[in-house]
Amino acid sequence: MRRSRLISAATAAALSFGVTVAATATTAQAATPATAASTDQSAVDALHAAEALFAPTATPFDSSGSAGAGSALKPDPTTTLAALAHVVGQLSGADRRTARAILARPTDGSSDPYHFGWSKSEIKAGHATCGPDLCVHWTDAVGGADDPRAADVRDADLTRGAGNGIPDQVDYTLHEMEHVWATEVTSYGYNAPKADNKGENLPDSNTDLPKIDIYLADVGAAGYYGFCAPEQNRRQSFGFCVLDNDYAPREFGHANTPLDNLRVTAAHEFFHDVQFNYDSAEDAWFMEATAAWMEDEVYPTVNDNLQYLKDSPFHYSYQSLDLRDRGYLSTYGSWVFFRFLSERYGRAIVRTAWQDAVGPDVYSLRAVELALKTRHTDLATQFADFSAANRAPKSFYLDGGLYARYVRRPVLTERLGGAKQTTKWLVTSRMKHLTSMTLGLVPVKARGHLEIEIVGPAAATRPAARLVIHKKNGSAVVQRVRLVRGEATVRAVFGHASIARVDVVLVNASDRTTCHRGTRWSCGGVPTDDSSVFHLRATKVA
User: How confident is the model over 125-143, as pLDDT tens digits?
Assistant: First the structure.
């Protein structure tokens, strides 16, 4: 037997999150094509997901900024629309007509019954105003639900009190979208979104084709900040975006100003349009996590993406980083992983990952792995370091003080050094890929060391461990643990005069998977190593 010590699960204590573990599958590094039958079913599933998302049952936001009573914050529909755009050709008859209606632009009117289509009168009263790169479309139909506030007290540069004949909300939208373009494309170096020639040829558009189209509609009434959609059944696609027409507090609450809500939505949704020109069929978690990360890059003082940390690895470390859950909100919470990487390696690490993600043969986790390889490291190492940093964000993130409230306590905490000198052998529950689990150890004597014995799974499954030493002065340091064939014995300073707690962070850092199996993880795959189990014992020594 590989292990030097055989631990009996019958006599060990369990560190259990009550996680249900999926069956494992044979490892496959390359993507495996889906069968025709599964492809047809996946197309129907994508259609049903989009229909459900746009069903007219939304509840507006309440005054606190969260969703109204009995409703949850609604996810960005962009990735659902992107998934649908790639399977339209596999649908037929009424299903195909429904899909095309969901993917229609607001100016398609009656052809857009699901998708915030403008009425005939709104289309007739439609306008467009354009900047160097984008056009904003709006309507001023009398009594229309989608018209922006009519206030016009600013000039086109929004600097002086002289109206320019265009509602200020339109001017603000164009101004912020052009700022986002200048930041994400010009400053950060991402490829510009693909432009088209579909929307700019209105009488007052005053532009040369092509441009990127932004439409204003009352999406806030349905619980959305905005969304974008690709329009080609191809990986590098052009698209359009729809933003709310006013970001009114009655719909979005008072957590942010209407202008700040517009700003972070512009940064997030425009980055989706950027993504469409890299790979519009990429994994949803990667698209949403990097878009939520981008909000904070472009507008670092708004901090709207903090709301997603309650669904992040800070709070649910036992949930796989790349899971697209039923509410989709964990895909937003994963943005903090890219914050960790960008603070360590610079924001260009995310651009490198998107460049590596181009094409059908490299899915999200593989793209991140390739990007990290250029920095002479790997995903397993960085995910383990990330899991450790999340135990003490004040010490390891620039804005860690804002993150600390979302950190959960260790799953089990033991006090050692008084009457109790050692723990039993402890056994974790089965751990899914890209998750972590923490045991807290608190000293009760002023001097001594802590000896920790770890017996983990096979090295091929990429197990990892870290010690996070919390000091009484409020700081923390990380001690890496070197596992040899999955095992280690490690010591750390352990006296209550200076040490408040030592966290033992156990990590399943595997990203091995068998792709195209219709799951909610990266590449729709079945993870190979979703049954990792660790055994450990801690002892207070001299």
Answer: 999 999 999 999 999 988 7
